[in-house]
Design a protein that fits this description.
The protein is mainly β. It is built from no helices and 17 strands. The protein has strands at about 1-10, 15-30, 30-40, 45-50, 55-70, 70-85, 90, 105, 115-130, 135-145, 145-150, 160, 160-175, 180-190, 195-200, 220, 225-234. Strand 13 and strand 14 (about 180-190) form a beta hairpin. It is elongated, with a radius of gyration of 23 Å. It starts with a strand and ends with a strand.
Amino acid sequence: LTNYEVGWKNQLLNHRAQINVDAFYMDYRDYQASASLTLANGNIALLTVNAGRAAIKGLELESSFLVTPFDLLTFNATILDAAFTQFYLPRGDGYAAVAGQVPTDYTGNQLPYAPHVAGRLSYQHTFALGDSDSLIASAGVNYSSHYFLDYHDYAATAQDAYTRTDASLTWERHTSGSSRTFSTRLYVRNIENAAILVGGQADNNAPGRNFNLYGKNGYYMPPRTYGVQLTANF
């Protein structure tokens, strides 16, 4: 991997604003990919192969703003262009054809788990409750454009664009004269109850179809989740 990177970091407004901007270009040689290869005897086996070359170009922003002593706003975003610049399987793989060995070129396909746009916006407010207690309310939303789960770029193994929103309310007590803290946190994650794919496998005989309809596996992030968390630091 050869990585070229240039960035700018700065604190503004009397250190109340932090803004980091980064541009990068990553040139991979012998990029490793997991592929269902067609062997010389015609059998299919899941192997890790060197998939030629890949390139990742991107811009990244990290920022935080202390709007007031009690209000914190953060915004992070990434823009990516990630693709295989050379990926050729001389005997193909298990998806190239129902039977037989078919040379297949995946050059130009998008790298797995590489959305073109991703970001998070969050806000936090702290309520001071006397000298030792505080109440912290926070909420954040994550956004991702669509991405693919593997190198085939099949619609069946693609995750559509989504948002995932989390929120929490935390009570904290600080013990005077010591580092002890106690907190109770109420939270809800994935408020939208979005079904977000993190893994999946297409059907070899129908690779363009939804794997859930053809007996293949699909793995998702947790659905909407509520919870209570108790913490003590000594």
